[in-house]
């Protein structure tokens, strides 16, 4: 820290308690100056020789036959006045970044100019400020911080502006030319780099990172911080990502991270002003700067502290451009009254809608430039697939909310297009959680909810889980088991046709079962839509499956019984596909093995359909 010593005489100021200060001298004091609650017993001549204002006040006091002078609204208080008084007595006094502004304002109040005496205090302080303080990085920050308690004097004297300009200029310096000390406690990244010989080594961390200045200015008051950041941005030399990092660091430093602390009445105004200020300082380019996770945290805080709609709308716009970077936990925005749910689902829905608007515009732009189709669009815009996974993960989180309505859940699940969800495992898992937490759903509601699942888009693991899931409607279980049976049959057929070509087995199997499943699923769906599953049907399935001799033991009773019937159908389809559809062109029928009324011949088994 820079400092400057003035005067050469020893300090003879003494204190008598907390409210009296005097100078030990052979001469009796002849004037008393009151500054706030402190009385200074001093001599007129040293003070009047350097202070023009004191000359006037002493003359007025003499006219009133009094030796007391009151200093009203003295900047810097008793400590600042004592520095000026010691300078008048030529006593040793030390100026540094913590007291120089107060001394400068006090000297201005006392009119200690060059007109009164050459080499007066104002001149000396200005030299110290310009030659030392404002050339020092940390001293400039300290001085700027001290100006807050000395407003408007420090602002009128342009100390605030000079400090801000000094700080902003230093942030724009090439990091290679930074030679002063700074604070940096965050983790530095050291990416791996591949060089000749395919050897990997840790790239040497730069001695000075580009965001070296971020932490030091976090000590500033929010009003002063806003002025500094505005100056930094106005120079146009700072990258948006670094601006975002600076805002994030300051927010983490000062904004409480708990809901109770954010909503506290004691600090509610401060927190609201802080959030509003940070939002206003975000980079103009909404697509760069801050991470999506930070923006979502800022949005949560904005909702809790009651930021106006314009600030929240700006955050929603910014988040929608980076939605693919978020995690399901990031999207869990607490709801506020009068909302009855645990989370603000409507806000997330609006973010997704904004994202889809941006994607539609981007897609239309791409389609206008070339004749690419939807598949090329999806492959080219992988962010859609990331958002699809994100929404499924978010649905799983909010499904645990006992107050979440079915309509809200369905609307949220349908907020993204089908091609953004090529696999339905995540959606199935979310629906299963919702069914587990909301046990009072009617059959119609369960049917509507499970209708969101496309069983053809479930992986093998998800299909096996669904086949054993007692929470799902029987209709869905039948579809899952039937498609698995068709998939298995298609795989066996492909293997039999090419027993020696194992390398193409997987591809042929997938193509075969997808083609067969598409035909058969349409058929079984048509039949399912025409009939109604009733309780007696479940009893019929239970009764007929008791005599089943299938070896499937991994499924629960209901699924195993249904699978027994489907397996027989699969065998029939593998042997003669035309015989299966000869009875009905609308849907496959289920063959009940072991029926007591059968004649024993496989060709004479009775046919039953699940009604």
Automatic annotation (TrEMBL):
Native organism: Hibiscus sabdariffa (roselle)
Top-level lineage group: Eukaryota
BTB domain span: 29-97
Protein's name in the database: Phototropic-responsive NPH3 family protein
Family in the record: Belongs to the NPH3 family.
Methyltransferase keyword on record: no
Start and end residues of each stretch annotated as Disordered: 573-611
Keywords: Ubl conjugation pathway
């Amino acid at each position: 820290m820079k400092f400057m010593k003035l005067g050469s005489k020893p300090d003879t100021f003494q204190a008598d308690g907390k409210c009296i200060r005097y100078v030990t001298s052979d001469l009796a004091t002849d004037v008393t100056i009151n500054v706030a609650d402190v009385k200074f017993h001093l001599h007129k001549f040293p003070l009047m020789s350097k202070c023009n204002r004191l000359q006037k006040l002493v003359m007025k006091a003499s006219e009133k036959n009094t030796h007391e002078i009151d200093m009203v609204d003295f900047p810097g208080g008793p400590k600042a006045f004592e520095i000026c008084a010691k300078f008048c007595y030529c006593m040793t006094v030390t100026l540094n970044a913590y007291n120089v502004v107060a001394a400068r304002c006090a000297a201005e109040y006392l009119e200690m100019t060059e007109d009164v005496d050459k080499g007066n205090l104002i001149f000396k302080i200005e030299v110290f400020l310009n030659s030392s303080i404002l050339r020092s990085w940390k001293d400039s920050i300290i001085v700027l911080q001290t100006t807050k308690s000395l407003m408007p004097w420090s602002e009128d004297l342009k100390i605030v502006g000079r400090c801000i300009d000094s700080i902003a200029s230093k942030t724009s310096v090439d990091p290679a030319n930074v030679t002063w000390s700074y604070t940096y406690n965050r983790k530095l990244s050291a990416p791996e780099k591949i060089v000749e010989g395919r050897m990997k080594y840790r790239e040497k961390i730069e001695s000075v990172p580009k965001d070296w200045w971020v932490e030091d200015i976090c000590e500033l008051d929010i009003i002063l911080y806003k002025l500094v950041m505005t100056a930094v941005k106005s120079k146009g030399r700072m990258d948006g990502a670094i601006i975002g990092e600076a805002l994030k660091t300051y927010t983490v430093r000062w904004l409480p991270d708990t809901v109770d602390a954010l909503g506290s009445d004691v600090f509610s105004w401060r927190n609201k002003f802080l959030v509003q200020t940070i939002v206003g300082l975000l980079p103009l380019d909404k697509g760069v700067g801050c991470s999506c996770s930070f923006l979502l945290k800022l949005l949560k805080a904005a909702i809790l502290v009651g930021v106006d709609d314009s600030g929240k709308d700006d955050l929603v716009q910014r988040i929608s451009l980076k939605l693919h970077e978020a995690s399901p936990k990031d999207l869990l925005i607490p709801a506020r009254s009068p909302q009855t749910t645990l989370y603000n689902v409507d806000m997330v829905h609006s973010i997704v809608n904004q994202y889809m608007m941006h994607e539609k515009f981007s897609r239309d732009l791409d389609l206008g430039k070339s004749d690419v189709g939807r598949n090329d669009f999806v492959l080219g815009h992988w962010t859609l697939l990331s958002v699809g996974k994100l929404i499924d993960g978010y649905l799983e989180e909010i499904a645990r909310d006992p107050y979440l309505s079915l309509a809200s859940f369905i609307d949220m699940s349908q907020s993204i297009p089908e091609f953004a969800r090529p696999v339905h495992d995540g959606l199935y898992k979310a629906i299963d959680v919702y069914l587990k937490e909301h046990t009072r759903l009617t059959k119609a509601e369960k049917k509507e909810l499970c209708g969101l699942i496309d069983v053809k888009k479930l992986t093998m693991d998800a299909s096996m889980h669904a086949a054993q899931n007692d929470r799902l409607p029987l209709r869905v279980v039948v579809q899952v088991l039937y498609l698995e049976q068709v998939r298995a049959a298609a795989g066996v057929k492909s293997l039999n046709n090419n027993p020696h070509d194992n390398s193409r087995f997987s591809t042929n199997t997938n193509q075969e079962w997808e083609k067969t499943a598409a035909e058969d699923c349409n058929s079984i769906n048509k039949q399912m839509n025409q009939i109604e599953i009733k309780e007696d049907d479940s009893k019929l399935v239970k009764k007929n499956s008791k005599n089943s001799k299938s070896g499937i033991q991994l499924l629960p009773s209901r699924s195993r019984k249904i699978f027994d019937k489907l397996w027989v159908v699969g065998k029939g389809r593998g042997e003669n596909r035309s015989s299966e559809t000869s009875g009905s062109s609308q849907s496959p029928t289920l063959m009940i093995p072991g029926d007591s009324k059968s004649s024993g011949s496989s060709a004479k088994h009775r046919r039953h359909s699940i009604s």
